[in-house]
Amino acid sequence: MSSQSSSSVEKRDIVALEGVTKRFPGIVANDSINLSIRPGEVHVLLGENGAGKSTLIGMLSGLQQPDEGRILVDGRPTPITSPRHALALGIGTVFQHMMLVPTLTVAENLLLGGSWWQRPRTEELEARVAEITSSLGITVKLHAKVSELSLGEQQQVEIVRAMVRNSRLLILDESTSMLTPKGIEELGALMRRLVEKGLAIVFITHKLKEAAAFGDRISVLKLGRKVGEIPPERFRALGEQEIISEIVELMFGKQKDDPEAAERPIRTVQAQAAPLLQVADLAVAATDNAPGLSSISFDIRPGEILGIAGIDGNGQKQLAEALAGQRTATSGSVRLEGAPIEGLSVGERRQRGLRYLTDDRLGEGTVGTFPVSINFFLKQVGAAPFWRGGVEQRAEIDRRAAELVREYDVRTPSLKTPVARLSGGNIQKVLLARELAEGAKVVIFNKPTYGLDLANTLASRQRIRDTAARGLAVLLISTDLEELLSMCDRIAVIANGALVGTVANADDARTKVGRLMIGLAA
Amino acid sequence: MTGLFSEVFLSALLFGAVTAAIPLLLAGLGEQMSEKAGVLNIGIEGMMLAGAYLGFVGAFYSGSLWLGFLTGAAGGVAVALIMALLCVRIGLNQIVIGIALTLGLEGLTALLHHFQFSRSYPRLPAADATVIPLLSDIPVIGPAFFKHHLIVYLAVALVFGMSYLYRRTQLGLNLQAAGDKPAALDVAGIDVVRTRTIAVLSTGALAGLGGAYLANVGAGLFIPFITNGAGFLGIVLAMLARGRPVWVLFGALLFGVCLSLTTAMQVAGINIPTDVIQMLPFLAVMIMLVLFGRRASLPAALGIPYERGAR
Predict the structure, then answer these.
(1) Domain count, chain B
(2) What pTM, to 2 d.p., does this model score?
(3) Is residue A103 within 8 angstroms of chain B, CB to CB?
(4) What is the reported pLDDT for A209?
C-alpha cells in the first residue's frame, strides 16, 4: 500500500460508525455516535474520563455490541461479534491495560491466537517481526519475558502484534498514559510512519497537546456524545495553539488556553527556615520485582515542593514507601523536624505528621467495599473521637465525613456508597482529604494525577499547591514532566534507585531534567 | 528388625510406592492442567471416585482392564462436564462447586455400589504386569520399577508428553494465557471458555483414569470412599509443582513411598499404632508445604471466572 494511491480509494472509510448507541444500566455510554475512520489518518478521539471512549473501543474490538446503530466495514454493515472477528476484519487494538501474558516471552505472546492443533511457527514469526520492526525503526526482544519489559516496550510489542496480524486499523487506547516524555514522542513518530504505510489509526487520549501534535482528524467526545470534529483540511490550516483552543472550546465551552499550562505561581519558600524533612543516605535493598534505593539525600523546607522526576519503575514507589515506613531501609536517616523517624512504624510516622498519598488508590489507598465515610478514617480506626471503647461512633464519623465531602468536593451519591463505585478523581479526593487532615507536616504524593481527567487533574494540582502554601513540605513524585515543571520549586531526578541530580525549577529546568533522565549530566 | 532392609522388603516397598504414586500422578497432572488454565478444580476427588467406580464396574463386567480404564476416564469426564458447565461457562464459584461435586460423588458412588453389590466386595483378578526385559533383572530396582501394568509406563510417559505440550505447542501457550491473563487470550482471538473447558475435561479424564487404576490395579476392588484424599493430594502436588509436570512425578513418588511405608510397616510388624502410620502421607504433605509452599507460584487468574469486558 502506498500513500500515493488514488484519492478515491484513500478517502473511503475502512470503518464507519452510524448512529451507534450503547447503554449500560443507569447511563448512556455512547449516544448516536457517527465516526469515519480512514486509511492514512490518525483519528484522535479526545474526551475526559467517562466520555465513552472505552466503550467505543470495546465495540470496535468486538468486546461489546452496540444497542442501536451500525458499524460499517469497507462500506458494508458488519456486526463485529468477537475479538477474533475484529482481528479477522483487520482491526487491531492496543488496550489501555496491557494485554500481554506476563509469564510468557514476547515471541510466545505474539504466537497466541494460532489454532491449537498447530505447532507455534517461531521461525516464520521471527522473520515477520524482523521485517516489521526494521521498517518501523524499532526493536523488540523476542525472547525476553514480558514481565521484564518496560511499559513502553510492552506497548511496542502490542503494536508489532497488531502488525503481525495484518491489521489495517490500529486502535491505541490511552497509550501515552504510562509512557515517559521521550516514549510519547517516539510513539508519535511511530504512528506517523504507520499511517504513511496506509494504515488507519484511532488514537484515544485525554491530553490536548498529544491530540494536536499527533492527529490528522480529531473527534471530541463528551458524556457519551460526539460534540465536534476537526477534519484534516481544517487541522492542517490551524496552528497548534489554535487547535488546542478550539478543542477546549468544544470540551468546556469557553476557556481559551490550554488549561494545563498554568503559570507557575511564585511562592516564597523560607530559605532560612529549618528543613521539615531531611533524608540522608537512605538505602533500600533490591527485591525480586523492585529495584533498590541507594544514597538518597535531600531536604525539603516548609512551603517547598520538591519534585521527583524519572522514568517509571526507577525506584519512585520504593522511595515513597521507605519514607512512609512501609518498606524497610537498610541504612540512612530520615528526620522530621530534626527528630529521627527512621526507626518508627508507619502509624507513628503518620502521627508525627508524615503523610503518604499512594498511587495505588484502590489497592492500598482505600477499601473498595467500605463506604466513603469509613474510608476517610481508615488510618484512624479505633481512635477517638470516631471510635470509643472499640465501638464505631457512626454519628461522629458521618458528621466529619460530610464536612470533608463538602470541603474536598467529593462527588458521591451518599456517604454510604462503597468507595470503589466512585470515579478515580473522586477516590483521589477522598485520599487527599484523609492524608491532608489535621497534623500533616510533610506530604508525599505519588503520581497524584495519574489516570485522572483534566478537571480532576487541575483540582488535585491546586490542592497540592495549597498544601505547600500552608507551609507544609511536599514531595511530589510524578512521571509527568509538565506537571513537575508547573508545580515544583526544585526537581530531583531518580534513575536506577538513586538521585542523579537536583535542579532548581528555572527556565532551563526542562532541558536539564531531560538530560538527567536520559543519563547525561545536567 | 533385620527384615526391614532386606532386598525383598525394599523392592516390595518401592513397588508399592509406584503403585500408590500412579493415581496421585494422574490426578496431579490433571489438576495441573486445570490450574494452568485458571480453574481451581476441587472437584477432582469426585472425578477420581467416579472414575474408580465406573472403572471397576467396566472392568468387572467386561473382564477387560483396558475397557475399565476407558469407562473410568469417561466417568471422570462426565463429572468434569458438570464442573465445566457450572464454573467455566456460567462462572459459578469454583471452590463451592468443587466441594459439592466431591461430596456428591462420594455419596453417589457409595450408594450405587451398595445397590449393585450389596455388602459384598468382589475382586478383579490381579493385573498382568508388563515385564521389561533386562531392566527387570536388576536387583531391587528391577522388580520395583519394571514389573508393572503397561498403564504405569504410559502414565510416566505422559509426564513428558505434558512437558512437551506446555512448552512446545500452541495449546500449551493458550492454556497458560488462560490462567495468567485470560483477557489477553480473548483479545488474541481465542475463546477463553473453550480453552478452559478443554483443560477441565482433560483433568476429568486423567482423574478418572487415576481413580480406575486405584480401584482396578492398586486395590483390585471398589469400596466406597476408596480414593481417601488422593484427589486432594493431587491438588497439593499441582500447587507445589509450579507448572512443571516432572515435579508432579517426583512429588507423587515421594507421597507414594509414604503411602507404601504405611502398608509395609504394618506388614513388617513394627510396633507403632496403625493410626500413626496412616498419618504419614499427610504429615509429608504438611512438611512439603512448610518447606516449599511459600515458593509455590499460582496463575494470576486462578479461581476467577472469566467474563468478557469485565475489569
Answers:
(1) 1
(2) 0.71
(3) yes
(4) 77
